Amino acid sequence: MRTKVIAKYLGYVLLFNALFLYISTAISFFLRENSLTPLLYSAVVCTILGLFPQIFVEKIDEINFREGMAISVFGWILTCFAGAVPYFMWGGEFTFTNALFESVSGYTTTGSTILQNVEALTKGMLFWRSSTHFIGGVGIILFVLLILPDSKGIRTSIYRSEVSGLSLMNFSMRAKRIVRIISIVYISLTVLLILLLWILGMSFFDAVCHSFATIATGGFSTKNLSIAYYNNVWIEVTLTVFMYLSSLHFGLLFLTFTGNKNNIFTSKVIKAYTLIILIGIILVAVDLIRSGGYSWGEAFRHSSFQVVSLTSTTGAATLDTESWPLFSKIILIYFTIQCAMVGSTGGGIKFDRIYLFFMSLKRRIKLIQHPQGIYVTKMNNSIVTDELELQTMAFIILYILIFFVVTLILAAMNIDGITAFTASITSIGNVGPGFGKISSLSNFSGLPDAAKYLLSVNMLLGRLEILNVITLFVILIKKNQ
User: Fold this and answer.
1) Taking a C-beta distance cutoff of 8 angstroms, is the pair 112, 438 a contact?
2) Domain limits for position 400
3) Does 120 reside within a domain?
4) pTM > 0.85
5) How many domains does the chain have?
6) Is residue 288 part of a domain?
7) Has residue 116 been placed in a domain?
């Protein structure tokens, strides 16, 4: 791998971050806030470091897949450290550990926070915090690809290292067109939601920040009580709809709006995904009614918001689910593990992989019954290759193994069982809230620094393709031996 090649593209990543830092700086400047200096300093440093490789590294005509993986993985890591600088310089609750945790949580769209008082942040800092969601939601690497020339497959090499193979099924487009489609859908949904939330009573600033968080399925709010602060059923309904849309495959959303027959209404996987969500909403609502304290209207209002919030990995809250019955908590934990769909801004195992697992299981049972038979696994009438099937099974096993090991390590830090278990699941799933000490209206400030570093790594593993990350580091280890 060529270090200069990787450095040049990491420079583009820093420059893209600098753009949003300058916007945040402008907000602080006009409002005369004390966050002006840390934001401006961070923006200038990102600009200088980003321009340096553009000046001293010659034009690149071709990169290979390994270099694409390195750009993707190291791009995310560098971005998270760069995003922590304004937090750390501003101070307050932001120690270096807390600043890095908040930055990783923002970019990976996890939405977990160490802040006990979000409203103490200046508007410039709040905008920057929400911007990390917007940048990370569709992926800073994909945003960079949008402006790069596709010389000899440069865009394709990086794109393949950034996305899941499952998300490319049913799409025979070039990487350039796919990136543009994702960006168009992402930006369109964001703009539409900003307008709707503004109309429904949020201030324009809050509407922008919450739209960034919702479409990116992140969950950062400008209020300590999250969405519960507004106590507005129409805001909740609107956010529920957009959280659901953001949890679907963006490519299929685009094809739906352009009238293509391959759309969200014809997709068997999306139909199954939607059915599972509806069943979850009904079960939680009935359990809340049965436990007492909730009317039918309140039960369905809160169950629908919380189920969709966790499934989409947004993690926004209308109340503290820590007080809910155990049955409802278990259902919410399931959705925290399953999460959204491939091709969306959500994290987790993703429903498509679970769907493929059961289709593969069905095929294996048929082969046991009829060893001489010829059977194939299909998703939306497309045949799944044995290689993709095996890759998906390996991903699921690795995913479960990682959150099990992380749970054990957290437990060894004397963190109680439910907090350790759900912190591990929500961090690798990029969901945000869990149960115990990190419930929906609580925060991660009480965890030891070592736990915050561990969960930061877990969040990055959840946001990136785990197999690609492992492959890259195996390559680097072998190279140094």
Assistant:
1) yes
2) 387-480
3) no
4) yes
5) 1
6) no
7) no
